[in-house]
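From the methods appendix. Each design record in this collection lists the tokenized structure first, followed by the designed amino acid sequence. Records were kept in a plain field format so they could be parsed without special tools. The example shown here is representative of the layout used throughout.

RECORD:
FOLD TOKENS (283 positions):
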């Protein structure tokens, strides 16, 4: 319990994940890799769940290089049997599962597609990779956590799921559904002492966002698109939010979505107006 006279070490210990076992899906790159490395840095044992074998092994190697424990698991999280195998091997290796991060997702070929032109297969693919993966992993892992009477599930949504987006219709729809799924799971699983929360990243610089380079520098884009902090985020920003939600520091927090997007979206026009109003008034 933190009191007025608590020492810094006591407070910081609330953020530690020493000895806890975390499955992080899609952790071979991008935000998933950042979260996996962040968790390992504060003492967690990591199951690197990744479809690409080379990336899976590479992240596990990074974790082991600084003394962490990692179990690489090449897993298709859209396949029920492979998810079950991942859970079984995690239990065989570590004996428990404390944390699940549902990070797998993507927009794929629908970027920029309009409703009247969108192929049914493209819609289905985006909904499936974002929603089914989260459902299957949550279902399987929550069964383990319910037996343990303790657990922590963190879903990764997106800024696109919190506001309308003209060129990310299926992706934004799926991520909005994940926010609702988070809230509903939090209610259902509270009786088992399982907390469920969500992170909604905004403009995060990863290898996966390289295709947006035609729109210019990420920081400049963030300013033009209306992020009050006027800069792009890093994978570390999402990782730090995940550490908070996975740790005892957030022990009384469930069913929430934390936006990691540089502030409330204002829109380019409103951002320009705000900057004009602020001009000359900064100390």
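DESIGN:
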């Amino acid at each position: 319990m933190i009191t007025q006279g608590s020492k810094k070490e006591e407070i910081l210990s609330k953020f530690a994940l020493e000895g806890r076992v975390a499955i992080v899906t899609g952790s071979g790159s991008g935000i998933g890799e950042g979260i996996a490395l962040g968790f390992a840095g504060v003492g967690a044992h990591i199951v690197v769940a990744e479809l690409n074998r080379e990336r899976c092994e590479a992240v596990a190697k990074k974790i082991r290089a600084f003394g962490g424990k990692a179990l690489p698991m090449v897993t298709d999280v859209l396949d029920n049997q492979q998810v079950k195998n991942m859970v079984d091997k995690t239990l065989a290796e570590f004996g428990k599962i404390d944390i699940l991060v549902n990070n797998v997702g993507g927009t794929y070929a629908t970027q920029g597609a309009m409703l009247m032109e969108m192929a049914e297969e493209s819609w289905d693919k985006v909904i499936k990779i974002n929603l089914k993966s989260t459902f299957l992993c949550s279902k399987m892992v929550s069964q383990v956590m319910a037996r343990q009477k303790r657990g922590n599930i963190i879903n990764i949504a997106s800024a696109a799921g919190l506001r309308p987006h003209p060129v990310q219709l299926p992706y934004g729809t799926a991520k909005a559904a994940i926010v609702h799924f988070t809230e509903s799971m939090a209610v259902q699983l509270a009786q088992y002492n399982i907390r469920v929360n969500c992170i909604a990243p905004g403009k995060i610089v990863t290898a996966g966002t390289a295709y947006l380079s035609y729109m210019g520098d990420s920081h400049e884009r963030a300013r033009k698109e209306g992020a009050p902090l006027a800069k792009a985020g890093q994978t570390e920003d999402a990782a730090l939010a995940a550490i908070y939600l996975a740790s005892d520091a957030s022990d009384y927090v469930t069913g929430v979505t934390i936006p990691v997007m540089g502030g409330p979206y204002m829109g380019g026009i409103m951002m320009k107006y705000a900057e004009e109003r602020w001009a000359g008034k900064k100390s």
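APPENDIX NOTE: Residues 48 and 72 are 5 Å apart (CA to CA).
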